[in-house]
Specification:
- This protein is an alpha+beta fold.
- 53% of the residues lie in helices and 12% in strands.
- The chain has nine helices and four strands; from the N terminus they run ααααβαβαββααα.
- A four-stranded mixed β-sheet has the order 2-1-3-4.
- Helix 5 links the parallel strand 1 and strand 2.
- Helix 2 runs antiparallel to helix 3 and helix 3 runs parallel beside helix 5.
């Protein structure tokens, strides 16, 4: 176990339905989360709303992962740092939410990264504020049990390749990344998360 986080973060975090409604409300006003409401950010958010709606309907958890989730017998809080414009968040969050819904001992909530940088900066990825980032907490003590994010390792490989290729545009990279997510069907996420749960239960 790592250090405990302040309970205030959990108390102000949103449940999944509230997070999704916030995104829809902001889009209706021509906005997204955060302070940057540029056209491209709105476009990303619109695409992400479609992605989340799709995965809410069609994402299916593996039998192996379901069995591992069933073994959780103590109350856990899953706290996710996210933003509406983040493509990786849109691809992964619906599945994380489905995981939490399988077991009454798990409760999941969502915090906006840019409004909680002091917490985000405790969970950097290679020095960056990459999201989504999920922190698994003991519900009684708010101590960290583990963490996951911002994307599966195979997708991290694509990201590292993009960073090393001066000739690849961001749009090309984004297309490559979302194609990977569509083909993977969250198998990598479920496998990694299963390994995390297995580690917590040993």
């Amino acid at each position: 176990m790592q250090n405990a986080i302040e309970p205030q973060y959990w108390e102000k975090a949103m449940d999944y339905a509230t997070y999704r409604q916030l995104i829809r409300d902001l889009l209706s006003e021509g906005k997204t989360t955060g302070s940057n409401h540029a056209e491209n950010m709105i476009n990303y958010t619109q695409l992400n709303e479609q992605r989340m709606k799709k995965w809410d309907k069609v994402a299916k958890l593996s039998d192996t992962l379901l069995k591992q989730l069933e073994q959780i017998q103590t109350k856990q809080y899953w706290l996710v740092l996210t933003e509406a414009w983040c493509g990786d968040a849109a691809q992964n969050i619906p599945v994380l939410n489905k995981m939490a819904e399988t077991n009454p001992h798990i409760e999941i909530r969502f915090l906006l990264r840019d409004e909680n940088l002091e917490l985000m900066d405790q969970y950097l990825t290679n020095g960056g504020r990459s999201i989504p980032k999920m922190i698994l907490l003991d519900a009684g003590s708010f101590k960290e049990l583990g963490a996951w994010g911002p994307r599966p390792e195979a997708a991290m490989g694509l990201f590292r390749a993009y960073k090393a290729d001066d000739n690849m545009s961001y749009d090309e990279f984004a297309q490559q990344m979302h194609t990977w997510y569509a083909k993977d069907k969250h198998n990598s996420l479920m496998s990694e998360f299963g390994e995390l749960l297995e580690h917590l239960q040993t």
